[in-house]
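$ fold --in a.seq
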Amino acid sequence: MRGNDRRSGSEPDLDRIQFIRNADGAVPSALPRKRKKSRELSLKTGLTVIALLVAVLLIGGLVIYPIANEKSERSVYGDGDPYVGVLVINGEIGSASETYQHGWTLEQIRTMRKDSLNTGIMLYVNSPGGSVFETDELYTELKKYQKKTKRPLYAYFDQMAASGGYYIAAPADKIIANQLCTTGSIGVYMGPVIDASRLLSKYGISAQYIKSGRNKAMGNPFTPLTTEQKEIYQSQIDEYYERFAQIVSKGRHLPIDMVYEIGDGRSYTASQALDNHLIDQIGNFAKARKTMKKDCKVRNFVMIQYQPQTSLMDYFTQLCDTFRSYVEEQGKSETEKTMEYLSQNSGRVFYYEVFE
């Protein structure tokens, strides 16, 4: 009896569930150890399930992400419809400027090359040319696009498509130029190589170079070029020019001798370029699109143009500069303003465009 009393004392019977009955029903007053083990087991099971779910999501992400990424690459432009990418080449062709960014431009060509919805490229050229290296790299990427995709490459010349601006468009299937476009300028130059040696000598100034060979420091402004050095530079220019001429000859299907004749560095008007077979048509951008639509059975055209990203700080800086310029202008007479304008713009060539 005492043993039973001891068992029914402060420690509950772990083999049974005791209930306190009241008006609300049965409420457990103690839980057996078996139920506690069940809770521990449920917790472990839940953690295992969560771990499995995380693993499935990770594995699924590794599989789904490349597919989704590939799909997004195929649908960068055109809103899911087939499109011609109008790639704008604006300004001097170099590594980077406010209007042209070389790496970005090459990436757009590669993107369209991999895009199954892309149906062609139209170059929208408004450029005086630029660096030999970047120009040739852009040309090479466009040739790769043609070779890999077999899609059409057309070109429209806006105000100017000269030198490197013509270089990159030479392999186009068809070139349409604005009636007031300046184009051609087939050639290469370097310089100016300034010789200030006589000026320095006049004031008793001399400059010396410690060099490994007689031609190592050639082209510096303090020493005149020797005949040998001029020939060295000329050989480099001739090599670059020969590549330029060959590109025009192959792209325009012209005899190389004809390219040498018309490619003496001069620029041409649109009508002169047409007479010399450097372009195929004269017309505005609307006519260029209409021509490509008819020739290639394409519909949508998407403008692809580099837009420099401006931060909020840049915006306020430009705003402050504009305000400062405005304040400075207020203290000048009309005569002073006119003379400054003429001084800053004298010798420049202005081009204008007629819109139809």
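$ fold --in b.seq
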Amino acid sequence: MDAKVRDTASGNPVLGLLSETRAALAVVDMQVDFCAADGFVAGLGLDPAPCRAIVPALQGLIDGARAGGIPVLWIYANYDDALVPPTFLRRKREAGIERGCCIPGTQGYEPFGVEPASGEPQFVKHSYSAFTNPDFEAHLRSRGIETLIFAGVQTNVCVEATLREAYNRGFHVAVAEDCVASHTPALHEATLQNTRTLLGKVCPASDIQAAFQVGKRQTV
């Protein structure tokens, strides 16, 4: 039975994909500056409350990945003006933004709500896509990872930038729809719809966790 038939029969849209490929969970930018009520995003007049609301579901997904033997990869932003690309810096200056975002050594850089376990890889980026850090793709290739499951923030910015590039580089893509969030709900929904239509799977974390457990039983 092929993956499409099996997924339809089970009602789980990622069961076939996660049973047949080597997957990793990518947790994107769960940092104080993006999520906290007094962080960088809030300072721009945007509402990061949805980014805080996903924490319980996201922790459950992370726990499920660990229990199922799925690698958890952590992606963090460091948007120091000296490190971001000139395109990034120009837009920031044109917008009149002076405050730093996710600067190491500040509270804004720190993890928010969820954090890595000992030994889980962390990748720092200086622009929206995790693939701007070449170590990220090198890690995926060296471990034979074929599918990336996305969680974190912001859905329409760094999550979308990374998942689009993942797809274009030949990685399968899935998004845990209740484990991603944005300060702009309409753009969050647009990314999910674009992903459903063009790029990969979108489903609740419960479907992904169930697929983790099936994969675990099949490999034990």
